[in-house]
Structure formats: C-alpha cells, structure tokens
C-alpha cells in the first residue's frame, strides 16, 4: 500500500526520525524503509511533517511494509481505554481509582512512548482555567509538547492547555504574514503567539496567569522568537490602552466569556484588523451571539465583515465550540 513518507538522506535519518517521533507524526503501522541510498519514514500527516521539518522537505508516496503490530493499551485490557497524548504524557479521565490504575499500568506496559500518566482530578476552574491532576506515573506534571514545528514546555497543573486545538491553531497561524502586529488577549503558554512569531509577526501575549506568562517567555526562547514576543502578566483590560490601534490581528480564545473583553479588542484593533473570536453556543445558533456582540462593540467605528464561520469541535451535547474570523475596517 502506498503511504506518504518523508524521504531523507541516511546521515540525517536519526535526527529526522527523532523530530517526527517527538511530534507524534510517524505512522507506526508501517516500517521505515531503505532504498537506493534513501530512508523513507512513513508519516500520518504530510502537511504537519512538512511544517515540522522544513518547507523544502521531500514527501513522496511509496509502498512500504506493514509493521508488526505494536502492543497498545487495549491489547492489555478487556476494553479500549480513552486517553489523550501530550508529549510523553498520557491524560485520562477516570473516577474509579482501580480502573485508573489499570489503565495507567497498561499505558506504561504498551509500546506507547509515554513516561507520565495523569488522571483528571477536577474540572477546569478559576480565572486561570487550571485543573487538579492525580499523578499516576512519572515525576511531575510538566511536559514538552510539539505541534507543527513548535515546542511548548508547560505544567498542566499550573496552566491551561488543550492538545485538541492543534489543528485549529495551525489553521489560524497559516493566515499570518511576516511583519504583522498580532495580539493574543489570553495567550497562555503561547500556542498562537509562538507560531505567529515563527512566521515573522511581532507579537504581544497577555495572560492573567503568571505561570503561563513564565512558560510563554520560555517557549519564545526555545523556539528562537524571543525578539518578536512581548509577554505581559495582567488583565488585558488594564493593558489595552497602551497598545491602542496597534494590532493587525487579534486572538480571543476564551470561549465562555470573550464577549466581556470586546471593548478591549476594539481598543487594540488597527485600521484594518482580523479578529479570531472563539465562542461556545447552542447548535441552533452557534455563530449569531458572537457576531451580534462583535457588531455591538465595534460598529459604527468599524465596518464589520465576517469572513469565516468555522466550527472547531463539538463541546457538549447540542453545544459547539466555534470561531468567527472577522475583519474590522475603520
């Protein structure tokens, strides 16, 4: 069967394989092949592999041998357990302590490259949107996560981070041009700011969580963009006046309460500004409340045009997490 593969010279093979493995992009169902002096590394997402490695990486479609089946947690249990991967951590959500322990043991015994297992011990809470975790395996709750060529260090017990939004973050980042002024009102550890800066934008990230801002600064350093990132620990409503009219692009990923910050967004917006506004609404009218709130805040000073109405994911029964890409023209 033909599968997408990264074609690489043998001398660069281990570095390439390691980078792809860290980003969770190797297709483990197939063997890495060697032919005519080249290595062929099967990948699950060619676009993500291209972004992670380099724009000029060669990706070809090639027939490779199926790998002997890896041992997965489901092979060691009577059921297929639910878990998320974040770097070398597995995240589970189990109320039953015995079942949580069994899943953790199976994850560690499997062939997954996992060192840490964390069980959700509370809902997301407080204005910093963090949750409690039960550490079932590993040394601590700090992880290194890689997505689309960026590396993020973060402590899950101290900051909010969702690996499920990687594709959405990449969708937005691909719209960013070099020399833009981009402002993230709720920046966290930098999952929007860092890829924006890597594309050449000058970025400001604000967050009320001091730990998140510390990680944002560290992640800017890790990704070589510290000269293009300003990280501010504060409520954005106290900062907006300092950057009045500065932004070409705004990100508002606080979907339960972003509408309360729209006045600050309008203050920040330049003469021609793109706003990425995230919301959670009932499926009967997922985009209407956000659009009405934006128009109420921005008109008549700005002409408001909705360029994209995008469903990010299902959030709860009959509720959708959505994004409005909105152009504000003064």
TrEMBL record:
Cross-referenced CDD domains: AdoMet_MTases (cd02440)
Keywords on record: Cytoplasm, Methyltransferase, S-adenosyl-L-methionine, Transferase, tRNA processing
N-terminal signal peptide: none
Superkingdom of source: Archaea
Record keyword Nucleotide-binding present: no
SAM-dependent methyltransferase TRM5/TYW2-type domain mapped to chain residues: 83-330
Annotated InterPro entries: MeTrfase_TRM5/TYW2 (IPR030382), SAM-dependent_MTases_sf (IPR029063), TRM5-TYW2-like_MTfase (IPR056743), TRM5/TYW2-like_N (IPR056744), Trm5a/b_N (IPR040601)
Record GO biological process: tRNA N1-guanine methylation
One CC-aspect GO term: cytoplasm
Gene Ontology molecular function, alphabetical: tRNA methyltransferase activity
PANTHER family per record: TRNA (GUANINE(37)-N1)-METHYLTRANSFERASE, TRNA METHYLTRANSFERASE
Record-given protein name: SAM-dependent methyltransferase TRM5/TYW2-type domain-containing protein
Organism from which the protein derives: Natrinema gari JCM 14663
């Amino acid at each position: 069967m033909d599968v997408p593969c990264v074609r690489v010279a043998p001398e660069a093979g281990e570095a390439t394989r390691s980078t792809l493995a860290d980003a969770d992009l190797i297709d483990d169902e197939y063997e890495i092949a060697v032919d005519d002096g080249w290595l062929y590394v099967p990948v699950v997402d060619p676009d993500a592999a291209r972004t992670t490695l380099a724009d000029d990486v060669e990706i070809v479609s090639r027939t490779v041998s199926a790998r002997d089946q890896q041992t997965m947690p489901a092979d060691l249990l009577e059921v297929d357990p639910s878990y998320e991967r974040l770097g070398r951590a597995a995240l589970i959500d189990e109320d039953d302590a015995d079942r949580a322990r069994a899943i953790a043991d199976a994850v560690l015994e499997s062939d997954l490259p996992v060192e840490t297992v964390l069980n959700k011990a509370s809902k997301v809470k407080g204005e910093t949107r963090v949750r409690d975790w039960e550490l079932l395996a590993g040394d601590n709750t700090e992880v290194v996560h890689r997505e689309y060529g960026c590396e993020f260090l973060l402590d899950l017990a101290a900051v909010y981070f969702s690996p499920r939004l990687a594709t959405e973050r990449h969708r937005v980042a691909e719209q960013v041009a070099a020399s833009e002024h981009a402002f993230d009102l709720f920046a966290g550890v930098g999952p929007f700011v860092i890829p924006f800066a890597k594309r050449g934008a000058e970025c400001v990230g604000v967050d009320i969580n001091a730990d998140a801002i510390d990680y944002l600064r560290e992640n800017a350093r890790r990704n070589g963009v510290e000269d293009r990132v300003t990280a501010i620990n504060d409520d954005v409503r106290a900062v907006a006046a300092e950057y009045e009219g500065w932004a070409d692009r705004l990100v508002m990923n606080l979907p339960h309460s972003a509408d309360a910050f729209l006045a600050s967004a309008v203050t920040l917006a330049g003469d021609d500004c793109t706003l990425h506004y995230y919301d959670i609404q009932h499926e009967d009218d997922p985009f209407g409340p956000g659009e009405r709130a934006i128009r109420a805040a921005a008109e008549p000073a700005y002409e408001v045009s909705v360029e994209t109405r995008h469903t990010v994911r299902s959030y709860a029964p009959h509720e959708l997490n959505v994004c409005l890409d909105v152009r504000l023209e003064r």
